[in-house]
Amino acid sequence: MTGPLLAVRDLAVHYRLHGPLRRAGMLARAVNGVSFDVARGEALGLVGESGSGKSTVGRTVLRLQPATAGEVLYDGRDLFAIPRAELRALRRRMQMVFQDPGGALDPRMTGREAVAEGMIVHRHVPAAGIPERVAALLAEVGLDPGAADRLPHELSGGQRQRLGIARALATDPEFLVCDEPVSALDVSIRAQVVVLLSDLQRRRGLALLLIAHDLAVVRQVTARTAVMYAGRIVETGPTEALLAGPRHPYTQALRSAVPVPDPAPRPGRIVLAGEPPDPTAPAAGCPFRPRCLHPARDARCASDRPALRPVGPVLVACHHAT
Fold it and tell me: In a 3-state reduction of DSSP, which class is residue 126?
């Protein structure tokens, strides 16, 4: 089959705000014109600080929330135009691992029931084969058989996230969105879950969208990475090339924050001043301009919004990137 499994084109997601402190009709522009592809069997990282819009992108491409504009093509089909009945059948092929495993699991369901639910809903496995399939999935994600009979509160955070991964794999999807899958976990077990996701992605040939705020996490799993800032992609390209020589000032700041044990000499930490732009009042020009430390920053940055353009092996939305 040709073409990407997932094609996102000019995706925009705006929220209408309400409340006594909000002006009538005020819009929060969470995502503005995001485009990217995910090929079959490819792992793409989507990184950025909190509020950059990356989680909104992940939920929208699975049609867990509506889009304001743009299109999402899954295997050539427009997800926003598919009737609900057809979408239900298609959901078996695309699943999500959520950030908070405790909140994502039904507190009244045992591990066995949580993993079996998708098989039953989608009639993916004959009833007689479900117990064996559940046991195999729990073993695949590194859980002992006893987890099948425990409720979520009886499991550790890492065990709950492994259970969430097993549940997502229950219908044998070909595309998986992982939304900050390790950010809620203890530091001591984050690496284990990252290694698990990387192994599953390669072994199963999954197309994976890994959403994170930590470049060190996506480096272990993804071949390509897109960096988001203020609802837009500001840099994208091969993960190793992007980390070895980031071109956008924001990516450079993210890269400088990655902890490295026994590091070789390298430039110091880049500390950004100020705050991300107000999503309810977008300004003209480059959204990163107020925080940018690029020595060539000029009046053009304040008036013209930069588009993604090729700079070496990556695409960068910066007038002065070289």
Answer: coil
Look at the chain and count its residues.
322
Q: Is the pTM of this model over 0.70?
A: yes
Antiparallel, parallel or unpaired: β 232-238 and 314-316? antiparallel
Residue 13 region, left (φ>0) first, then alpha (ψ -120 to 50), else beta?
beta
Q: Given the DSSP bridges, would you call strands 207-212 and 175-179 parallel, antiparallel or unpaired?
A: parallel
pLDDT in tens, 243-256: 999 999 999 999 88
Report the alpha-carbon distance of residue 100 to residue 262 in Å, rounded.
32
* CA max distance for the chain: 68
3-state secondary structure of 178: strand
Torsions phi, psi of 110, nearest 5?
A: -75, 170
Q: Are 213 and 32 in contact (CB under 8 A)?
A: no
Tens of pLDDT, residue by residue over 15-60, are 988 766 556 568 889 999 999 999 999 999 999 998 899 999 999 9
CA 30 – CA 57 distance, rounded (Å)? 9
Which class for 216: exposed (0-12), middle (13-18), buried (19 or more C-beta within 10 A)? middle
Q: Both tokens of residue 12?
A: 């925009």
H helices present in 23-90, as ranges: 54-61, 84-90
d(CA 13, CA 8): 13
> Which residue in 112, 106, 177 sits closest to 139, CA to CA?
112
* Helices assigned H by DSSP within the chain: 54-61, 84-90, 101-104, 111-121, 130-140, 157-169, 187-204, 215-221, 239-244, 249-256, 299-303
According to CATH, the topology of domain 6-259+267-316 is: Rossmann fold (3.40.50)
